[in-house]
């Protein structure tokens, strides 16, 4: 069964099992990378993330916050 893209109004083929497995593998890789960064003590503060989100769609969006702070122990 095809799916409708609500933004374009065009139909797209449904995700195949192989596509889903590939997508899940990529998502798992990203999650593992994020967890390793946190375990190593690197993170972006919530204030940095919130400021970035609020800047999206403005004339001067901020760059994506980079995890550079050492986690307090």
Description:
The chain has 73 residues and is mostly helical. It has one domain (15-70). It is 45% helix and 11% strand. The strands form 2 sheets. A two-stranded antiparallel sheet has the order 1-2. A two-stranded antiparallel sheet has the order 3-4. The chain starts with a strand and ends with a strand. The mean pLDDT is 87.
Structural key phrases:
73 residues; two-stranded antiparallel sheet
Helix-strand layout with pairing:
Blueprint: E1 3-4, E2 11-12, H1 17-39, E3 42-43, H2 46-55, E4 69-70
Antiparallel strand pairs: 1-2, 3-4
Distance between the termini: 51 Å
Average pLDDT: 87
> Largest sheet, described in full?
2 strands, antiparallel
* Principal-axes shape call: flat
Main sheet: strand order: 1-2
How many domain modules?
1
Number of strands: 4
Number of helical elements: 2
Sheet/helix structural class: mainly alpha
Fraction of residues in helix: 40-55%
Q: Approximately how much beta-strand content do the residues carry? A: 5-15%
The topology string of helices and strands comes to EEHEHE
Rg on CA atoms, Å: 18 Å
| Oligomerization state | single chain
Poorly predicted residue ranges: none
Compact description:
The protein contains two helices and four strands, in the order E-E-H-E-H-E. It is mainly alpha-helical.
């Amino acid at each position: 069964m095809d799916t409708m893209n609500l933004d374009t109004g065009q139909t797209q083929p449904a995700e195949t099992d192989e596509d889903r497995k590939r997508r899940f593998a990529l998502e798992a890789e990203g999650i593992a990378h994020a967890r390793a960064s946190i375990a190593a003590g690197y993170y972006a503060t919530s204030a940095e993330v919130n400021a970035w989100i609020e800047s999206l769609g403005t004339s001067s969006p901020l760059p994506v916050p980079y995890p550079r702070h050492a986690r307090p122990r």
